[in-house]
């Protein structure tokens, strides 16, 4: 009974990509809810005086809305198998984590939840990328060894 070790790596990459895509859509949804809270009812959020990144909460709302919609769109593209979505997802999710770090004084628990999801997405996308690269390298090496 022989097994192909390279097929397992490819299936892991697909599973991790699926996980990351779903998490990106969830994280983007959270960002969108955060944006709606800042845009519609900014009295809900606590504005701290003398904060370095203190800008208008409506502006923060637009920033979170754009990032949230980008995360949802890239997550959908990732689920559809678009290769560029791996790198774009890592970049946009890293920006999301940084933006939510600056959002901590306004809504600490919510920002920490989104940062945790963002870090999990970055890990999953980086793992999927390395798994896919290893699977591709393994297949090319095995085909060159046979031929």
How would you describe the overall organization of this protein?
The protein has 147 residues and is mainly α. The protein has one domain (20-132). It has four helices and no strands. The chain has helices at residues 5-40, 57-79, 84-102, 108-146. Helix 1 (5-40) packs antiparallel against helix 4 (108-146), helix 2 runs antiparallel to helix 3 (84-102) and helix 3 (84-102) packs antiparallel against helix 4. The longest helix has 39 residues, at 108-146. The relative contact order is 0.18.
Concise description?
The chain has 147 residues and is mainly α. Helix content is 80%, strand content 0%. It has helices at residues 5-40, 57-79, 84-102, 108-146.
- Percent helix: over 70%
Q: Kindly, what is the distance between the CA atoms of the first and last residues, rounded to a whole number of angstroms?
A: 22 Å
Give the strand tally. 0
Tell me the fraction of residues in β-strands, as a range: under 5%
Give the number of helices: 4
Mean residue pLDDT: 80
Q: What is the 3D form?
A: elongated
Structural class: mainly alpha
Supply the number of structural domains.
Answer: 1
Radius of gyration: 19 Å
Main β sheet profile: none
Contiguous low-pLDDT stretches (5 residues minimum) are 1-8, 141-145
Order of helices and strands: HHHH
């Amino acid at each position: 009974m022989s097994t192909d070790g390279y097929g397992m790596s490819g299936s892991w990459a697909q599973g991790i990509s699926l996980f990351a895509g779903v998490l990106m859509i969830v994280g983007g949804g959270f960002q969108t809810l955060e944006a709606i809270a800042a845009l519609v009812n900014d009295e809900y959020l606590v504005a701290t005086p003398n904060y370095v990144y203190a800008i208008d909460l409506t502006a923060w709302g637009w920033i979170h809305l754009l990032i949230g919609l980008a995360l949802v769109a890239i997550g959908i593209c990732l689920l559809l198998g678009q290769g560029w979505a791996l790198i774009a997802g890592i970049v946009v999710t890293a920006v999301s984590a940084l933006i939510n770090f600056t959002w901590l004084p306004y809504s600490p628990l919510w920002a920490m939840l989104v940062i945790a999801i963002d870090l999990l997405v970055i890990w999953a996308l980086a793992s999927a990328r390395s798994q896919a690269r290893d699977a591709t390298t393994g297949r090319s090496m095995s085909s060159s060894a046979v031929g």
